[in-house]
Target: MoaD/ThiS family protein
Amino acid sequence: MLNKVKLWGQLKHLAGEEYLEVADASTVNDLIFKLAKQKSEISEMLIVDNKPNPSILVFINDNQHLWETERSLTETDSITLMSPIAGG
Model:
């Protein structure tokens, strides 16, 4: 299985790419760990204290993923990751 992931904001800027492909990610947590290993440029934003960073917004098929629930992924899922936005 191959998941295509769209990056937004600072994740896209740091990775230098808008789309990445991640192989064999069965859950959202698995996807985050594999992506962090695959793209070291964004790993510190994705992983905090050896866990997926709950500040990262994850959208699956245009619905926001809630970190309190585990979510299985399919190859047809549309996945978007967005770094937190701050400013004033």
Summary: The helical segments are 9-15, 28-38, 40-46. The chain has three helices and seven strands. The first strand starts at residue 2 and ends at 8.
